Each structure stands twice: as structure tokens, then as C-alpha cells.
Amino acid sequence: MTAAPGGPAGGTVPPAGSPLPVDSLGMWEATAGLPEQVATAATAAAGLSGLPGRDGIENVVVLGMGGSGIAGDVLTATAAPFMPVPVTVVKGYACPDFVDAGSLVFALSFSGDTEETLEAATEAYEAGASLVAVTCGGELGRLADEWRVPVVPVPATIPQPRAALGAMAVPPLVVLESVGLFPGASVWVDQAVDQLRRRRDELIGPNSPAVTVARRIGRTIPLVHGAGALGAAAALRWKAQVNENAKAPAFWNAYPELCHNELAGWGQQGDATRQLITLVNLRHDAEHPQVARRFGLVAEVLREVMASIVEVRAAGEGDLAQLFDLAIVGDFVSLHLAGHEAIDPGPIPVLVDLKERLRDESAG
Length: 364
Fold this sequence. Notes:
The chain has 13 helices and nine strands. The chain is an alpha/beta fold and 364 residues long. The chain has two domains: 157 residues, Rossmann fold (3-Layer(aba) Sandwich); 135 residues, Rossmann fold (3-Layer(aba) Sandwich). The chain has a five-stranded parallel beta sheet, with helices on both faces. The protein is globular. The termini are far apart.
């Protein structure tokens, strides 16, 4: 496969040739631009001033929701296992009570107006934590200026938060490398960009595996399984992308936990589930050997109660490359699912309406 031209800080996206009958926000092109987005995000976060010293950081906290919050799961799956301090991901209003002057807190909000993140970030600032904001602007950008904390800008040209995976997830990794908590992050980012370009070229080509997987899923409900923190983050990403892009239900779970509960739940209703649910197994090289065995054993149990079992295997060097590889495949699968039903993947009016109603009621 031929990688897209361009250096590590950018590049030209090959003609995407969107097959979607409706795509008012350009989600196909934004998804095809993920490799370049990752490279650009790494450059934007490099050399950030105002960061705390390594010796003063006792813990790391990531605040974020939805398409921004997945960045915390990426950090947990890739950097956290190698870091000497604990990492906590918060997807809600409350900042953990342990946050203090020894905390490095990432406040992630694409729009800058996510109410949960704003409330938790304010608590973190008042507790004396060192903050880094990653945002397009909005209220978080205004507060960051007021608080004089570092900001990594997110390109406003990205159409939706869920299309900003690289822009939101990469800056915290680069910052952690800068403060000495995650050496080698830049190498992993470069490897991820290389793999994303290879996979992107395949996914927009005439024999895209995303088309095959989307056809296998069809109008069934995907249940996405992954292994460990890496697989869990990828499975959550797939689930959310099907929800928002295809406007369809989807569910996820992770090994080994699902072997201690969910597996027992398939003992009934097989006549219904085999008409409704497709199991999608996301595989990667970092699986524990016993977890790798579980995929096959669980498939034996579930084969009779699923419409189909599909496997998607990650490629690339390093955990970050493999996680992003699984993510971009899922992104394109969700776009094809939308396209098959002539659904516009971009707008999410029900979520916008909910936020507006919450805002109106709190103001009243």
C-alpha cells in the first residue's frame, strides 16, 4: 500500500471519494484525515509552556465526555501501564476529592462548553491542580486564559467531536512525554500515523474491509467485544460511533470481565438474539494469553445465539497504533452502516436538543 504523501506534521489526504448518499458535514473526509490529524495534534502539543515539573506530579486526571472523553480511555490503555503515577478518567461533573497541587489534570472539551467538564475543571483549578486544556475554545478556552493554564488548540474545521479522536487523544500523550512521565510517546505517535495511513488507504479503496464488516452487521445490533484496556477502549469507540454516525443501537463489553457475567446471559432467548445481534471481536497483539484463548471458547458458546461472529484484527507497531487502527476501521464501518440506510452521519439532533433543554431548565 502507498502511504499518503507528506511529513510527520501533516500531509495530503488522498481523494476520499465518499460513497455516502448524504454527508452534510463531511464526516467521510474528516475520518479519512485521521492520520494527518494525529500528526498535527502531536505538533500542536509539543513544546507547551507552563507545565509542572515531573517531581511535583503525584497523579494524573483526565476530564472529558463523549467524543472528547474517549481520549482518557486511550491514555489509560496506552500510557498508563508504563507511568509511575496513577491515572484516573472522569466522565462526569465531580472532580475526585484527592485532586490537589500534586495533580496534573487534562480538561478535554472539543466545543469548550461541555458542562460536566467545565464543572469538574473548575473544581480542579480551585483545588490547586495543574491544568492543561484541549479545546476549540468556548467557555473552557476562556477559563483557561483567565486561569493562565496551557491550552492545546483543536482545529475548528473538524466537524464533530467524534471526528476529533486524534486532536483530543494525542496532546495528553505528548504532554506526558514532555514532563517525563511517558518517555517514547512521540515514537508511538509516529508509528500510529504510519499505520493509520496504511489502513486509511485500504479503507477508502475498492475492496474496503469496512464494507465487508458493515454488510455482515447489516440491520442487526452489533455487540463489540475487546480485550483488556486497549480492546475496551476500541470496543467503546465502535459502540459510540455506531450510535452517533449510524443512529443505531450498539453495545460493548471487555475480556476477561465478560466471562464472569455476560456470558451466562446467553442461556435464553437464542431464537431472538440470533436474528438481532452480531458479535464483533476486536483483536490485538497485547492480549493476555489466557484472554486470547477465551475468544475461541466464548465463540463456541455464542455461535448458536448470534446472527454472525465477525473478527477484526489490529495491525501496526505499538499499542497506540493498534488502538487507532481498530478505531479507524470502526469509524468507517459506522459510516457504511449509515450510508446503507441513507442516514446523514453528521448531525445528532437528539443530543443537541437534550443539551439545550438541560441548559434552558438550569437557567430557569
